[in-house]
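FAQ

Q: What does a record look like?
A: Structure on top, sequence underneath. For example:
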């Protein structure tokens, strides 16, 4: 993850942040516990061993004459922390006896009591030293007891590590518990994400707060408020489209009738050409109004998501669509044909299926060149029923093929006459009933290939019977 210069790294994942801070907290707690134990137990060990050294020294100094100390080896003195007892002459110049003679390099300390000494031989070490006070007689020997200071530190350190070990051992368990807690909490967030993903963009509904953690609830509430504003905007848009289409429908129908009545009174020549252009414009306007009304009915908030269904014979439906659009095909001198090799039945409202196929065939007829060909085929592809609508028009540029289903979008350079709503209406009706529309430019290599567009409708799975 890149970080801006001068800014501390901060993970974006909440789970990563929690794990990071938990690990840091546990390690800091273990280190602090170990340090505190080392200091506290070190003082305890130091004081206890000092008291033992004093008792050992007093026990040897009280004897008359002092008894000889028991011999030690180097391992006992350096590693196991055994007390090294030295018996010195009364003047402190002569070492009369020692439990470990190599430590004679440490002389009798000038002042009685505790002190510290460092030696380089027989090994570099630090020593805790207790020197007993001189006896009542002038010739009474002096006693000095030594213990390896590194042994004391090792003992305190070992105890400190043992005290911090449980916290370190609990760290993996704590991480596992946190991982499970965060995973359980994130399930509610994933549920909210699924609710958002399943929203119908035309009918967004509020998200439930029942399973949302309190920390995320304000975000979900803000999102619900946004959805409310979106619904209000959609409702305003629908009302505008419906009102405008209804208000325009009657006057445009009246204008169409008046134009039809004027046809017999238009003189031949340039006036007839201008009249035909006017009539074509009025026809386009009427077509646009009908499409706007169809669009507003599909988006109506009171429209049920699952309208009443019926068994529709797709072959019969396509033949009817081709027959009704034959007038438009004849007007553009386009050869339209139908070929069906199967007879699938789809459970859906017939009117909405007609909307899908009528718009696709109408779109093909409008973009096919004058004298061109439009073929409607009902057949199987990879065992699935499909309806293909093919034309030999200019096709759709690759940069625009992903946008042709957007409302009011028209391909740049497309011939006049379209409104940019036909494909949007077809897709909306298709998606409501499990159909899928695929558009692609025709390939020269395919059967009957050449320039043009292939609009393929994938029908829902259904039993097929031979056509």
């Amino acid at each position: 993850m890149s970080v801006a210069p001068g800014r501390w790294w901060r993970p974006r994942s909440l789970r990563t942040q929690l794990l990071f801070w938990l690990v840091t907290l546990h390690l800091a707690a273990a280190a602090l516990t170990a340090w505190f134990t080392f200091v506290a137990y070190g003082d305890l060990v130091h004081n206890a061993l000092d008291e033992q050294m004093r008792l050992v020294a007093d026990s040897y100094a009280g004897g008359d004459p002092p008894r000889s100390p028991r011999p030690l080896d180097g391992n006992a003195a350096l590693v196991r922390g055994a007390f090294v007892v030295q018996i010195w002459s009364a003047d402190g110049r002569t070492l009369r006896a020692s439990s470990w003679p190599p430590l004679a390099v440490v002389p009798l300390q000038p002042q009685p009591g505790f002190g510290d000494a460092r030696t380089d031989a027989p090994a570099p070490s630090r020593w805790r030293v207790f020197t007993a006070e001189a006896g009542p007689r002038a010739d009474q020997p002096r006693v000095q007891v030594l213990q390896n200071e590194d042994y004391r530190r090792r003992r305190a350190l070992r105890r400190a590590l043992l005290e911090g070990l449980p916290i370190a051992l609990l760290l993996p368990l704590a991480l596992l518990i946190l991982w499970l807690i965060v995973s359980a909490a994130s399930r509610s967030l994933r549920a909210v994400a699924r609710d958002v993903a399943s929203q119908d963009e035309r009918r967004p509904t509020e998200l439930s707060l029942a399973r949302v953690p309190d920390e995320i609830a304000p975000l979900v509430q803000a999102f619900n408020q946004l959805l409310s504003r979106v619904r209000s905007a959609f409702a305003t848009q629908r009302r505008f489209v419906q009102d405008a289409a209804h208000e325009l429908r009657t006057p445009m129908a009246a204008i169409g009738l008046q134009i039809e009545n004027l046809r017999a009174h238009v003189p031949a020549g340039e006036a007839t050409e201008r009249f035909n252009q006017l009539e074509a414009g009025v026809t386009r306007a009427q077509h646009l109004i009908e499409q706007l009304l169809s669009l507003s009915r599909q988006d109506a908030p009171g429209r049920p998501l699952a309208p009443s269904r019926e068994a529709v014979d797709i072959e019969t439906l396509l033949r009817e669509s081709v027959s009704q659009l034959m007038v438009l095909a004849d007007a553009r001198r386009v050869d339209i044909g139908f070929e069906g090799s199967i007879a699938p039945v789809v459970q859906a409202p017939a009117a909405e299926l007609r909307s899908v196929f009528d718009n696709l065939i109408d779109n093909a007829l409008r973009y096919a060149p004058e004298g061109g060909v439009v073929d409607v085929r009902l057949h199987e592809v990879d065992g699935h029923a499909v309806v293909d609508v093919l034309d030999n028009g200019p096709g759709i540029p690759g940069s625009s093929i992903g946008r042709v289903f957007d409302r009011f979008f028209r391909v740049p350079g497309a011939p006049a006459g379209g409104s940019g709503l036909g494909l949007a209406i077809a897709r909306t009706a298709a998606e409501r009933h499990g159909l899928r529309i695929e558009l692609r430019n025709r390939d020269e290599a395919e059967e009957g290939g050449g320039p043009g567009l292939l609009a393929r409708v994938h029908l829902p799975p259904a039993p097929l019977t031979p056509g």
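Q: Is there anything notable about this one?
A: The CA atoms of residues 30 and 167 lie 6 Å apart.
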